[in-house]
Specification:
Order of helices and strands: EHEEEEHEHHEHHHH
CATH class: Alpha Beta
Helix content: 25-40%
Structural class: alpha/beta
Largest sheet: 7 strands, mixed
Length: 222
């Protein structure tokens, strides 16, 4: 068995933490693990991509385009930008809370409508799971715990080969003691948000039969 995860987002969202948690959890289960360094502008606001591969005999983090088993998207536009890393069978877990690029924040560009982004993804891949990670994290105590929500949500994806317990233990080992209670609550809430949805019929968008317009996120710079 080999399994590949692409983690995408922007600097400051916890992509690196998620990579470390995944790698350590996979190693604790006896898998061979290989991770890429974080690519892109890792400071706050820049696009970030990290690859985690694990399984039997894994020795390289390099993965062919379209071969990801799961895309963990911390930010909506960055998730859409990186759809080509997966295929129609790839599981996609996407945070719905956008991080506005500087040009959008300054009023020179517009951020795409989230519903349009969801429709675009679902027209290519029906395995989309959306998570209001920031909203859940705020209910847990602080927005900064959104990455723990996303890790918990990933643990609930059907067929995910790393156990919930292994992910949780790896997460808690990475955070300072004073934040462990917050991250524990956020992780559990993220897990439950996806677990409940697995047992609830989902209504997906109908495929748009109109001529496809140019990708709305392709021109959005960070």
């Amino acid at each position: 068995m080999k399994y590949s995860i692409q983690i995408v987002g922007v600097g400051g969202q916890g992509v690196l933490l998620a990579s470390m948690v995944l790698g350590n959890a996979a190693m604790s289960m006896g898998y061979d693990v290989s991770m890429s360094e974080v690519h892109g502008m890792a400071q706050r606001g820049g696009s970030v991509l990290s690859t985690v591969r694990f399984g039997d005999g894994v020795c390289s983090p390099l993965e062919a385009v379209g071969s990801a088993d799961l895309i963990l998207g911390f930010e909506p536009v960055e998730t859409c930008r990186n759809l080509s890393l997966g295929n129609k069978n790839t599981a996609i877990v996407m945070n719905l809370d956008p991080v506005l690029p500087s040009m959008v924040a300054a009023g020179f560009e517009e951020y795409p409508d989230i519903e349009i982004l969801k429709k675009e993804i679902l027209s290519r891949n029906s395995n989309l799971i959306t998570v209001d990670a920031t909203g859940i994290a705020l209910k847990a105590g602080k927005a900064v715990a959104a990455n723990a929500v996303m890790i918990g949500a990933m643990a609930a994806v059907k067929g995910f080969p790393i156990s919930k317990e292994a992910l949780f233990e790896a997460l808690i080992a990475q955070v300072p003691e004073k934040f462990r209670e917050l991250n524990t609550k956020a992780f559990e809430m993220g897990y439950e948000a996806v677990r409940r949805r697995r047992h609830t019929p989902q209504t997906f968008f109908k495929k748009n039969t109109e001529r496809r317009r140019p990708s709305v996120w392709g021109k959005l710079n960070r």
